[in-house]
Structures are given as C-alpha cells and as structure tokens.
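Please review this one.

:::
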Amino acid sequence: MQSIYKKEINMNHKIYITDEERRKCRKVADTFAELENRDTAIVVTDAGRYGFVRLSHYDELYGFGKAVCYTDSIALFDALWKDWMNEQLFQIALENPPLMDLDYEDIFNALPKEKQAELMSKRGYFAQKSGITNA
C-alpha cells in the first residue's frame, strides 16, 4: 500500500520547466537583475518546478499587482527586455516633458535615429550576455 501512495505522489508532481530551461531562465534573470534600476518595481524569482515568476506593479500597501510565470527563456528575455526598454523611455520622457503624454512606442519614434539605434543595440548585448542566441 505504501508504494502505491508514493507512486501517486510522483505522478502528481508534474514538472513544468526543464532543467535546461531553468538554467537558461536563471541566466536571463541574472543578466537583467544586474542592470535593474532599484526604483523599478519588477522582480523575477525562481518558482521551482513551475518556472520563473516575473512580479511587477509593486505597491507598498497591496504588494505586487501582476505575476506572470515563464517556462521559456526566450519569452522571459522578451518580457524583461520590454520592461528595460520601457524604463529607459520613461526616463527619457521625464527629462523631456512634452514626451510624457506619449506612449512608449511614440516616445521611441520621437527620438533621434542615433538614440534609437543605441537603445536597440542593447538588445543584442543583453542577449549575448544571457546566452540567448535567437532573440
């Protein structure tokens, strides 16, 4: 009877992320964590067999308002890249008040081509640093 019980537990212990993807996701999370602005309310944490969870929209009273789980390193990379880019565009808009009323895409399009290229070149840098080859 005891062996049946153990078998049932093992069958219910589903793995949602492979060891290889866990390693890749860890590297992606570590790459962006090194660059994280401490004022940014985004945290990536290892959720064990479920993958990695990106927590965002932090409020001191209510905690994190959004949680998304990732089991794919490229999807995690894309989400963190977007977060990083949006933070950069927000900082640029803070320095140039007429841009504050625009959405992120419009802020980006309002930048000089050189600044756009500079920001976009960071994607390749982050991809190489995190080991993502097809980002």
In short: Helices lie at 2-12, 19-35, 73-95, 104-110, 113-130. The first helix runs from residue 2 to 12. The CA atoms of residues 81 and 123 lie 7 Å apart.
